[in-house]
Amino acid sequence: MKSIVENKAYAFALRIIKAYKYLSQEQREFILSKQVLRSGTAIGALTREAEHAQSKADFINKMNIALKEANETEYWLMLLKDSEYIDEKTFISIHKDCDELIRLLVSIVKTSKENHGNK
Fold this sequence. Notes:
The protein is mainly alpha-helical. 83% of the residues lie in helices and 0% in strands.
């Protein structure tokens, strides 16, 4: 059974892929959309990788990188909204999912570091 963060990251990646298709095909925007595609899909890939981490430190590292990718994705989404490639309604919807992933990853990293430090 996949973890909550893995399931949410996968669903988010699918949304990002659909957004990329829209941005590149309909809006003819290729630079920002490629950036958000890369970082937005990396979150799930990293959480999946962490599933088979070699150590607790490796797990923390992969989840921390996933957090950085989620934070970067938020940045690209804000740029897409502020440059009017995506509307406010779309931004709010996808940003909510991104923010939820960031919060989950912050919690996982923080808890994992605390537990790792207690050993």
